[in-house]
Design goal:
two-stranded antiparallel sheet, alpha+beta, 41% helix, 3 helices
């Protein structure tokens, strides 16, 4: 099994995102784990980025990079590091009730692409607001 890691700074300079091969019975899927959803330019007094525009530009570049490499890898399953972001508890409950032949509740390529597009749009808007462009 090969898990591919990508450095995707933005949440912090050292944020890592992953591509993970998955199986559901005999069906193969590809999971994408985006390493960091929130942006801060400093934590506990440690500066990560010199200012908000720099942090936002870095984050936006990473989101766009993730969108590109995930599209090329065929990611169809979103895995998050925070269960509230992708309603993981609801998906786990649906998985327990899943009958043979029903779709897997975690597999949803369109939902994952919409999520990354939403991140792109929100960060772009914040960057435009902070730089007045």
């Amino acid at each position: 099994t090969t898990i591919t890691l990508y450095i995707t700074p933005g949440h912090t300079p050292g944020t890592v995102s992953l591509i993970v091969p998955l199986k559901d019975g005999n069906q193969r899927h590809v999971g994408g784990i985006y390493g960091g959803f929130t942006l801060g330019i400093a934590r506990s007094g440690v500066p990560y980025f010199p200012d908000w525009p720099t942090g936002l530009k870095t984050y936006l570049a990473s989101v766009r990079r993730v969108k590109d490499y995930e599209a090329k890898a065929g990611v169809d399953t979103m895995i998050t590091i925070h269960s509230r972001i992708d309603k993981m508890m609801d998906k786990l409950a649906a998985l327990k009730m899943r009958k043979p032949g029903e779709p897997h509740p975690f597999v949803n390529k369109e939902l994952h692409q919409r999520f990354l597009n939403l991140l792109d749009e929100c960060v772009s808007a914040q960057l435009a607001w902070r730089t007045k462009t």
